[in-house]
Amino acid sequence: RAGEGERMVRAGSWPGWNPTQLLGMHVSGKTIGIIGMGRIGKAIAKRAAAGFGMKVVFYNRSAVTGLPFEATQFDTLQQVMAAADVVVLAVPATPQTRHLINADALLAMTPDSYLINIARGDIVEEAALIDALQNDRIAGAGLDVYEFEPKVPEALIALENVTLLPHLGTSAQEVRVQMGMMAVANLKSFFNGELVPNPV
Description:
Elements: H1 2-10, E1 31-35, H2 39-52, E2 55-59, E3 72-73, H3 77-83, E4 86-89, H4 103-108, E5 114-117, H5 126-134, E6 140-143, H6 154-157, E7 162-164, H7 173-191
Parallel strand pairs: 1-2, 1-4, 2-3, 4-5, 5-6, 6-7
């Protein structure tokens, strides 16, 4: 609820600390559900398990073994959505993942759970997410990407139970330099007739 709290402070309406103000979720010991256990999903799961003692469950289209932390792979997306307190999306945008998170997937979540999308906007059916948030079918969402980016629906902007960021998940100087150097390495390899190290 950091965004909500910041708006309160900026508006001059913060009355001062009290023990029940802006209560959120304490993530230690909770269950994180990772949708897509690739490189990014594994990095998130590792930090959640080691840093917060979270139980890790995940859905991936192929079997994942040999993880350096305890995790349970479920057979269906709905199983992960139902079991997790926090669901993090870490799948690529493909025709198969478009609207992967739709009304049915959101209905599987519990009313006190949160959806975090750091992947791509069209993985989530935004209209279904807005409906779930407006009707308190889930506790909240954290979004860094949007279905029709850069357009963000007024209905999302009006909600207090969603944190909205402007696609800045990789916005760190070192990361952007690495991304640029990766492109340079690809170009060099291509023009030298070699396999590119990071094909797109």
